[in-house]
Structure formats: C-alpha cells, structure tokens
From TrEMBL:
It comes from Planotetraspora phitsanulokensis. It holds the Pfam family Response_reg. Residues 147-212 form the HTH luxR-type domain. The modification 4-aspartylphosphate is found at residue 54. Signal peptide: none annotated. InterPro entries: CheY-like_superfamily (IPR011006), NreC/VraR/RcsB-like_REC (IPR058245), Sig_transdc_resp-reg_C-effctor (IPR016032), Sig_transdc_resp-reg_receiver (IPR001789), Tscrpt_reg_LuxR_C (IPR000792), WalR-like (IPR039420). The lineage of its organism: Bacteria, Bacillati, Actinomycetota, Actinomycetes, Streptosporangiales. GO terms for biological process: phosphorelay signal transduction system; regulation of DNA-templated transcription. This is DNA-binding response regulator. Residues 3-119 form the Response regulatory domain.
Length: 221
C-alpha cells in the first residue's frame, strides 16, 4: 500500500485528489495539510511514502517544505503540484529534492502513474520536460565556481552517461547513442546517483549543469 499525504491550501483540490486516489487498491491517503508548515508537523506523527504538495501556499510554500522534508534520508518522496508548467519554482524544487512535477489539472491516470513511479524510486520528469526546464533556468545557473567532486569519482563512461542524461535523453536513447544495453545505462545511472549522493535523475541533471559538465550552449547539440 502506497501511503500518500495531500498538501494544498485549497480544500476542493485535496478533496478531488482524495477521491481519485481513494479508489485505487494500492493507494491510501493517510493525511492532509493546508500549508507546508502543517505538513511538516503532520509528518512527525504520520508515516507517508509520497507527499503530493502544492508549490504556492501560505505560511510555508512547497519548496521550503520539500527542502525540510527531503533533508532526512528516510523521508517520503515529494511530488510537486504546479498551476503552470515549469514555473519559476521548478529549479529550486529539484535542488530541494522533489522527485517530480504535476500540473493540478493532471488526468487521473497520470496522477496515479506518477505516484506509483515516484514511490518506486523514479523521477517524474520526462526528457522533453527536462530540456525545457533547463532552457528556462539556464540564466540562474552559476557561471563559475564549478563543482568538481566527480573528477575522481565517476568513470569516463559514467560521465558520458551523465552528460546524455543532462541533455534530456531517456535511458533507451542513451543506450542507442552509446551502443549499450538499456539495462547497462540504468546500472551506470544508479552508480552515478550513489557516488554523487543524488536522489534521482532530476537532481543528476541539475548537478551536471552546476558542475560545469554541461553548459546551456552545449545542450543544444
């Protein structure tokens, strides 16, 4: 059973999500909160696997709440709800540890699929979305002070895989580009995440840009 917490300041939105999720045999809504601060408080007494959280809320917004929630190694996964696709909070939300984004008007099947995917450890950010996200936030990326913690950690092949992940390619596309089995690409990505202490593919993309492995002008090729 996947335990889900709903965090949104609009009761009508929470009610709609609760009705959709409550009809699923493998999903249980274990709690609701109207803002980030209340969600943090509720998580102290309620165990959840996935937190479905709005970005814009009073008292404490979704990004700050996600940052506090994801700071714990045993924290639930956070799926961020947005009104507009790839709004200005997206980059900070990924850095905070969010595992994906959903529009508030997401069709029920996509909502359910996203919750199951995130619970299984995947990031809900499609390759095409990754590219648009990075185009949007490139101006906010640091121009210098590139992080070099991967220099002595990643193998040449792992750096190559990370580069293609940052371009927004799926595992299948990377496998085709590098002439590898898709399972091999998945293995490399798992090692990259472990070595760099990254939560998921989304944070790997941000890391690749921040570290200087890839720059916005190189992402177009």
């Amino acid at each position: 059973m996947i335990r889900v917490m709903l965090v949104d300041d609009q009761e009508l939105v929470r009610t709609g999500f609760r009705m959709v999720l409550g009809a699923q045999p493998d999903i249980e809504v274990v709690g609701e909160a109207a803002d980030g601060a209340s969600a943090i408080e509720l998580l102290r007494t309620t165990e959840a696997d996935v937190v479905l959280m709005d970005v814009r809320m009073p008292r404490m917004d979704g990004v700050e709440a996600a940052r506090l929630i994801c700071a714990s190694p045993s924290s639930p996964k956070v799926l961020m709800l947005t009104t507009f696709d790839l709004d200005e909070y997206a980059f900070e939300a990924i850095k905070a540890g969010v595992s994906g984004f959903l529009l508030k008007d997401v069709p029920p099947p996509e909502l359910i699929s996203a919750i199951r995917s995130v619970n299984a450890g995947d990031a809900v950010i499609a390759p095409s979305t990754t590219r648009r996200l990075l185009d949007r936030v490139a101006v906010h990326l640091p121009a210098s002070e590139a992080l070099k913690r991967d220099d002595d950690t990643l193998t040449a092949r792992e750096r190559e895989v990370l580069y293609h992940v940052a371009l927004g390619l799926s595992n299948a596309e990377i496998a085709q580009q590098l002439r590898l089995a898709e399972a091999t690409v998945k293995t490399h990505l798992g090692r990259i995440l472990a070595k760099l202490s990254l939560r998921d593919r989304a944070q790997a993309v941000v890391y690749a840009y921040e570290s200087g492995l890839i720059t916005p002008d190189r992402s177009q090729g």
